[in-house]
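tokens incoming
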């Protein structure tokens, strides 16, 4: 098993503590956390440098208004980790996604769970705030 495959397998086991998981293919794991779903992939940037790339669907098909733009910018500015973006800044509707990539190959399980929990919980908070507005 390659280092990247081993890291993805560890991530799959770890995020199962946060919510139900699925393995749609050999290169990713999907986790449901609250009302959101997140895809986690491993990218090998160079020998010995594997990163986890998290893409979290925070909200789908929202009216793409100036208020939504302002909310996404405000909520994104408050996040400690990750970035919050609209998938289509000019369309009538848009999805809101959170992106975060970090080096994870040498993190032990508890620190890895902690980082993933912080990131995914921030996406859940943003989802709840966007739906409430």
């Amino acid at each position: 098993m390659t280092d990247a495959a081993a890291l993805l397998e560890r991530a799959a086991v770890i995020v199962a503590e946060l919510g139900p998981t699925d393995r749609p293919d050999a290169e990713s794991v999907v986790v449901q956390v609250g009302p959101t779903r997140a895809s986690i992939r491993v990218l090998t940037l160079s020998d010995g440098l594997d990163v986890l790339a998290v893409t979290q669907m925070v909200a789908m098909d929202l009216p793409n208004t100036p208020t939504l733009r302002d909310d996404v910018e405000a909520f994104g500015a408050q996040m400690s980790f990750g970035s919050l973006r609209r998938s289509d800044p000019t369309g009538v509707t848009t999805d809101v996604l959170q992106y975060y990539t970090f080096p994870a190959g040498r993190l032990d399980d508890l620190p890895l769970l902690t980082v993933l929990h912080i990131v995914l919980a921030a996406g859940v908070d943003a989802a709840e705030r966007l739906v409430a507005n």
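note: The longest strand covers residues 49-63.
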